[in-house]
Amino acid sequence: MITEEQFGQTKDGQDVTAFVLENGGLKVKVINYGATIVSLEAPDSDGNIDDLVCGFDSIEEYQSDANPYFGCVCGRYANRIAKGKFSIDGRAYDLAVNNGPNALHGGLVGFDKKVWDAAIEGDAVKMTLVSPDGEEGYPGTLQVSVTYRLGADGDLRLEYAATTDQKTILNLTNHSYFNLAGKGLVYDQVITINADQYTVVDDDATPSGELRPVAGTEMDLRQPVPIGENIKAVQGRGYDHNYCINQKAEGELTLAAFVADPESGRTLECWTTEPGVQFYTANFVENVKGKNGAYYNAHESFCLETQHYPDSPNHGHFPSTELAPGETYTQTTLYTFGAA
Q1: Domain chopping of the chain, boundaries
Q2: Helix locations, the chain, DSSP H
Q3: Does residue 206 contact residue 199 with C-beta atoms inside 8 Å?
Q4: Are 181 and 226 in contact (CB under 8 A)?
Q5: Is residue 305 within a helix (H) or strand (E), and if so which, with residue range?
Q6: Among 66, 44, 68, CA closest to 261
Q7: Cβ distance 100 to 204 under 8 Å?
């Protein structure tokens, strides 16, 4: 079942619509501002319902500087591009720098800050966006869509597609912040990430180009590990690293991560056709007022941002993020929720 409701107006007077999808015990609210997941309600092992994602009550809060990309679609290029510079076929491009020395999540006005066109199509909600040539410094007019669909088995499927009229780069992700308990620190929630390597970064989170084995380090999450067990040993304020998924084959839906909360019994499987997943433990979230008077802080949620690797255009051995005319960008991410 899908219903529509109003979610207010943006600062420039555009109407924002919320779509509520319900199926298989899950209830998900998505708005067409940033193609953003606002809430995701799911039962625990006793049938108690909690909202498992961070977010806000109003469009004004989503448009505020306090919003750390809660639940949105990031683009054109999710994650970082070093110094906001890249080249295609020898031609250099300069992007807006909005994260230290780097370009992050599409720039100053990325896809997260756009009102998308949206419509119910059967059992799904499809959102579409046109990004004109030169927007935020990226070449080519881009036609983008993301489709949200709830399955009866507790899964939320995100299907992305895009085409361009000039060669460009593209890297899309959803930036939901999850907490399987609904609130509190996530240290006791147990994570497994299906990756033998990760992309090494400097203190500005810029990839060096090295793909380093996780074996024998605090980054090794191949076997179940409580999120808090090694978090203080991780570079920076906690996990904020791209893991290189052990894909069965390029573009094949592969299990990227599994998270379990021992207290509530809830579980989350993250499947994707993308080669990487950014595991982020909300390190820079500090006293952000959210839904129903809640306040969010660091390490009280985590992100599983399925993606191509950060700064791929500047590292030829990373999986390519180039998209040419006549090609279609596609990717699928599946979040499956359960209760043991």
Answers
A1: 2-339
A2: 59-62
A3: no
A4: no
A5: strand 303-307
A6: 44
A7: yes
SS3 of 108, please?
coil
Q: In 29-41, which positions are buried (b, 16+ CB within 10 angstroms) versus exposed (e)?
A: bbbbbbbbbbbbb
How far apart (Å, rounded) are the C-alpha atoms in residues 280 and 294? 20
For residues 161 and 142, the answer to whether their CB atoms sit within 8 Å is no
| Domain 2-339 in CATH 3.40.50.300 | no
The candidate with the shortest Cα–Cα distance to 177, out of 279, 109, 27, 47, is 279
List 41, 269, 305, 308, catalytic entry: 305
CA dist list (Å): 227 to 42, 165, 290:
21, 43, 23
Residue 28 in tokens: 């998900």
- 305 is an active site residue: yes
175 is catalytic: yes
pTM to 2 decimal places: 0.98
Query: How far is Cα 108 from Cα 112, in angstroms, rounded to an integer?
Result: 10
Tokens standing for residue 287: 């006293």
pLDDT tens across 57-73, in order? 999 999 999 999 999 99
Count Cβ atoms within 10 A of the Cβ of residue 47 and give its class: 0-12 exposed, 13-18 middle, 19 or more buried. Answer: exposed
For 69-119, what is each residue's pLDDT tens digit?
999 999 999 999 999 999 999 999 999 999 999 999 999 999 999 999 999
* Size of the chain in residues: 340
Residue 183 pLDDT greater than 90, yes or no: yes
Cβ contact 63:57 at 8 Å: no
Long-range CB contacts for residues 230-236, cutoff 8 Å, separation at least 24: 231/187, 231/281, 231/299, 235/201, 235/203, 236/203, 236/205, 236/283
Euclidean distance between CA atoms 110 and 81, whole angstroms = 14
**Which of 105, 135, 136, 175 is an active site residue?**
175
